[in-house]
Amino acid sequence: MGNGAESNAGGSSRGMLRSYVGGRWQQGTGDGAAVCDAVTGAEVARVSSDGIDMAAALDHGRRTGGPALRELTFHQRAALLKALGSHLREHRDELYALSARTGATRGDSKFDVDGGIGVLLAYGSKGKRELPNDTVYVEGDVEPLGKGGTFVARHVATPLRGVAVQINAFNFPVWGPLEKLAPAFLAGMPSLIKPASQTAYLTEKLVELIVESGILPEGAVQLVCGSAGDLLDHVTEQDVVSFTGSADTARKLRSHPAIVRNAVRFNAEADSLNCSILGPDATPGTAEFDLYVDQLVTEMTVKAGQKCTAIRRAFVPAALLDDVAGAVRQRLAAVTVGDPAGADMGALASLEQREEVRRSLKALQGAATVLFGDPEHVDVAGADAERGAFLSPVLLSGDPERAEPHEVEAFGPVSTLLPYTSTDQVVDYAARGKGSLAGSVVTGDKDFAREVVLGAAPWHGRLLVLDADDARESTGHGSPMPQLVHGGPGRAGGGEEMGGIRGVLHHMQRTAVQGSPAVLAAVTGRWTPGAPRTETDVHPFRKSLAELRVGDAVVAGPRTVTAEDVAHFAEFTGDTFYAHTDEAAAAENPLFGGIVAHGYLVVSLAAGLFVSPEPGPVLANYGLENLRFLTPVKPGDALTVTLTCKQITPREGADYGEVCWDADVTNADGDSVAKYDVLTLVSKEAR
Asked: Which intervals hold domain MaoC-like (predicted)?
């Protein structure tokens, strides 16, 4: 990437922010709109997307970015994500410097920048660990569709042939784009990033660093700064649209004619009235009480409360309301507001955003009283209180029976304490938010935690139970994790971002493929039971990855199991379960009707049959999967094992790969007594 790039740095105050579309940097036409420093009010740049051909940008992603990504395997894409994460980590200071202009403190900047980079690295690791080194993802087991085994089916997932369009909010100009980019890229879909204008200069710098790195294929990432214009008019059934922002805007976008007409996949992560619940056991002096207070203050002040996961409703037992209020007020009184370089809490993203928060506070004050802070005044350290978008943290005490606390969100450093008197009542109150991204329960009472979690779960995308045991390692109430779904039902948008491999599959089409075992093996690249096997004079364990083929097999045996084998195995291992050692008791067992061999003895004997003992390409056996014992084995039974190469996964950057072998152990009647997968590490070349 990077052809046609201009020299001016992202976020420069020298003019118009640039868009990166069609493989080159472009500026919008016209005067554009001013983008201002949240701390000083000075103009940072101007932004306009006028003159940007949105249809051409999408076409470039589909025709250039998509094919380049689909040529790569999951592991190759994962490696590029890791490389990009490492590259951005080396340039964090450049991003931190611009982030300060959004009103973010150094800690806020790290939360945004390092959090986004962490998503890239996490998906890089998950892609290598959980996805095949292939271009197709096979999901679930083989589904038999006929009695004879000649007609079967399997689900496969392939990347959509469109563009992942992301429309982001102003509060996380780095994390927001990267958390959407990572799963889409790993799936094989190019992305088009449309940041919120208030902080677009930071996203522009992020994309500049990505483009200049040359790590990603051309067309994999594009950027449009300014209005979305007619962008959504050009989306097709193969595109994906992901939105982060207000619930009202999410509803409007979801009903866009092109999205409705083409049934475009639409993922929304909207604002929500997230809650935190203090358990009745968490009285002053307990670790959980202190954790609750600390977490609430943190959620109010990090990013000046401008987090879609921040705690808006703080439910506390009625008897503890005054204690919690006093402790939170004391903590908030120590918070300094001002220049992000030295203060505990910086500015909101813009003066317009501050006015929006003040309007929401007026609505909330109809059902609540102010316990701390003045919405109209704040003492500011090192900056101008009026030119900068500064606001005092505001703690309210409200009536949970009123609608306002459950319907009005002040998207800033604002939270409302709400009392409750029973578990059922607080679960009901939590549900009145009509869908939340995140909630937390702070308690040392496991029974209370269970009741609240199971009661509130239908209205939440994520629930944290915080106590003295997990506090040291907990990432906190408001931190989305790449491994977990980030989204929520109802008001929260009804979507899911990230969520590990779930996030990847959101950008892929799941297709049920029906056919013969041989056809399914060819389509999926995995041997399917019933497909042909290839037996040669060369033992499969003597073949390197370069020589080995899916379907290569060896049949070994028979090996007769004796009573002496069973007795010796019981004595040697200490597994003297009665079914292996006590003839009379075993005879009474309705499943066995007499002495049977240990399941692990069967597996051990099978290994002795199929192993090739000499040094060679097979480096190690590193596990078994899906082991099932199907038919009891009795002394006198003769065992045969059929071992078939099921899947070959070369490792990127290593001289070996993984081979999964299908093992089927049968008795003299041909009945399977055990089935499982053997996992080995095999050299890529002959040794």
From this structure: 553-651
